[in-house]
Amino acid sequence: MSSKYNTEDIVKFINGHMDDAGADIFRQAMQEDAALAEEVEAQRKLARLVQVASIKQQLDNIHQEYTSEKTNVIPGAKHTKTRYMWQWIVAAAAIAGIGLFLFLYRVAPSANDKLFAEHFKDDDGVPSLMGNSTTSFDDAMVYYKAGDYQQAASKFDLLLAAKPGNDSLKYYEALCQVRLKNEDKALQLLSAISATPGNELGLKAKWYTALVLIHQNKSKEAVAILGKLTNPEFAYSKKASALLKELSGDK
Amino acid sequence: MQSDLYQLLLNNNEAAYREIYKANYPLIKQYVLKNNGSEDDVKDLFQEGIIALWDNVHAEKYRHTNENMLHGYFRTICKYKWMEILRTKSKFIILPDDEEFDMKTDETVLSNLIRREEINEFTGIFSALSDKCRQILSLFYYDKKSMKEIGEATGYEISSMRNEKYKCIEKLRKLYTERLVRR
Fold it and tell me: Between vectors from CA B120 to CA A250 and to CA B164, what angle results, nearest 5°?
């Protein structure tokens, strides 16, 4: 393209940000210069691609925040009509509260909130049986995978009372507690998981501990933990390094 | 307040999507689950609906009068898309009339909504770029920031910023063209 217009001018024209006189001259130039007209069309396509992909990225983050907020407001563990009615009432009140909060303050999530939302993914869990022969652990796992963290947590809690030294139970209950916004309890459980070398669960526990600390704006502590995960032999080394990079970029 | 949401959508403000989630997600969820869909379907449909709404608002295919109308238009888009999805799954289910989901609108507008495949293709191409390029291009094309603002957000001087942006655009152009050739 040999035109006097650069990409910024073209995008300004596409976005309707050129003044009327400038836009008229630009249209005239497009009629006289086929290469410019072609480039305008190409820029329109590229812009739409980036716009759609950017929205999708934002929507994924919002969806995660929205669904975890919804989960958080679900109380107690009885399957009764009353329980569901209260769930709706509490959920509606929470949504109204959040709406009012956003309306009054129009607060954007902090950089740490964004990092947490972007990186915190549920553990895939372990395979669970779905028939009559399921164990209590399977039962809890089914609730966890279905996203009913309240039910799952109460079941893991019961199991943990019977087996207080079991790291898997501590781990999954901790992840439920994060989703239920009981992050201090989650940190307590995660820190109690054995960190012996080669223990995969121990590494996972460290990863989630770092994420929760980030969410609590304790970046310094999170950085110290992530630093221990960057050993290339560890499963989380790449993710930890990437997160450290993002954290340092925020500072 | 009536036209705030519309304005937020036009300005590509994230608050618009949060507002649409808050106002419509429970309704859409109930609708899809009642009509042969799953939780995953709800998420996909909802997000496609928002993107299609955004697309039509920016292409001036939607004539705004008030916020209720905007929500109704969004739900109508979702219903239309859900019918399409059921059709592709060869599930011939007649969706019942529902005043929440049946706003009178131009059929040609609804039949030319951005498709799921197109959204997936766009996100696929975009995710093939480096984090830095994604950030620069998103600020440039989506947030419509000036070079100075992009430079401040990314830590580049304006001159090297232009160079980086050029390289990112060319990389994106190449990926886009390659994808077209493979079709």
Answer: 40
pLDDT at A113: 86
Q: What would the two tokens of residue A75 be?
A: 């109380």
Query: From CA B136, how far away is CA B105, in angstroms rounded?
Result: 37
CA angle B54, B55, B60 (to 5 degrees): 100
* Cα–Cα–Cα angle for B70, B55, B1, rounded to 5 degrees: 30
Q: Which 8-state DSSP code applies to residue B93?
A: -
Give CA B146 to chain center in angstroms: 23
Mutate to test the interface with B, among A45, A59, A105 (most CBs of B within 10 A): A59
Q: Do B125 and A42 touch (CB under 8 A)?
A: no
Q: What is the ipTM of this complex?
A: 0.90
State pLDDT tens for residues B43-57: 999 999 999 999 999
Taking a C-beta distance cutoff of 8 angstroms, is the pair B158, B151 a contact? yes
Chain A residues whose CB is inside 8 A of the B18 CB are 62, 66, 102
B112 touches chain A (CB under 8 A): no
Which of A13, A45, A56, A118 to mutate against chain B (most B CBs within 10 Å)?
A56
Q: For chain A, say whether B8 makes contact (Cβ under 8 Å).
A: no
pLDDT per position as a tens digit, A95-123? 776 666 555 555 557 888 888 888 888 88
Separation CA A174–CA A144 (nearest Å):
11
Q: Do A53 and B126 lie within an 8 Å CB cutoff? A: yes
The H or E element that residue A108 is part of is none
Q: Is A20 part of the contact surface with chain B (CB cutoff 8 Å)?
A: no
> What gap in Å lies between CA A43 and CA A26, rounded to an integer?
15
- Comparing CA positions, the residue from B91, B132, B7 lying closest to residue A245 is B132
